[in-house]
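Researcher: I'd like a structural prediction for the single chain below. Treat it as a standalone chain; there are no partners to consider.
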Amino acid sequence: MNAASLLLPLLLPLIGVPITILFRKQRRLQSTIAFLLMLTALGFTINLLRIVLTTGQPVTVQLGAWSAPFGITLTADLLSVFMLLMTQSVLCAGLLYALGSQEQAVQYRTFYPLFLALSSGLTGAFLTGDLFNLFVFAEIIVISGAALTAIADDKYGVEAAYKYFYISTLASVFFLLGVGALYVAYGTLNMADLSVRIAADPNAPLAMTGMAFLTATFLIKSATFPFHFWQPDFHAAAPTAVSAMLSSLVVKMGVYGFFRMTTLLFAEEAGLLKLLLVILGVIGVLYGGFGALGTHNAKRMLAYSTLAQIGFILVGIGWGTPLSLAAALVFTFNHALIKAAMLMLAGAMASRAAVKSASFEVIVGVGKYHPVAGLLFLIGGMALAGIPPLNGFVSKLMIFWSGVEAAQYIPLLIIGVASIVTLVYVIRAFMRVWFEDNPQAKPKEGDKLLAPALLIVLSLVLGLWSEPLVAFAQTTAAWMLEPNAYILAILGGG
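Model: Treating it as a single chain, here is the predicted structure.
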């Protein structure tokens, strides 16, 4: 039963790929199957969370009956389940948005198979216990994400997809070089086994080389400064249902990589890496905030905003205390909900403009005819800026409190002042879209608002009742800082 609970969140979207291809000529049935499979996978993920919390042990499956560290290991510990719950919740919202979208891209027969492939890649990345298989799932994410962007209605979709594919190819090369270096140094790629061997011999030849290549890989995957340049174009050009996933979830694979590197693989040797994450995180908060302030497109604004939000998360990981890691986890979860909702709302306004575009020149004044969307955007923007009583306030409060606890006053001051910029660009966007006059703006049907509304409501709930998420994050942070249970569950057969 435990094995099924671990495998089904991955297998359901994976088997959904050929099933939705089979029903490619029946779009309504195809989309319904995709949504129901993703919803069912989320249900099994929730059950997986229940099992891990109840037993206090990871759920582990060795594929092919090969024992670790030789076989393929799938493992669900608290960190994996935390990331998986966040991911599949937002993926369900993304599919719900696609069901009510008027974009031509979602009408293509390949859209839902590719979306499920993206879902499978993300799910597998968080469940695998092996570095090479993490690379494989990362490639599934890249291929499906690039293809979904290439079929976008936006005329720059193909260009953005090429940019993403080429920069991801660079990341793939770094990833393989890192994997190869660590395999030469330690003779294993199982993350639990690798952790034990690195701790026993941290100065093995090529060990730090492998660490450096993995660091470069995850910096690109998380679109961290200075590897951010592909992200605004890619996320702005993609179909709305896809861009919401890219900016809220796909970049979190890099974040997940840094969680594993600093608390499992290189727990004792990660001092320099943590310092780098703090420095790049602070720069990202500044660069992303001012980049969002100066852009001309609502989706690009939110893409730059992601650079800043990822910066907060990296700072929390870099400080490395129990509170800062818990804060980084809470920030990761809440940002996924808020950013997906905000991108959906930007796309919904673009779908109601005279010319379908998220450019402020086009969508200015469009919101006057859609006050409900305006209310949702304002609440989401306040959450993004960290205004109480929304979940974004909880995220930033925990980050700031952990900085005080760690006596990191200079980076704390910088990110605190820079975070004010978020409020400026959110309010400016809100005023332009919902209050400025535009003679060309007319009442028009567009993408449905149910999916972003559900995410905004969840953001409000997690702000007013934050205790469960905070407690979950604190338990997960404590778990990460004591990785013996993870290691024993895999290598000890527990």
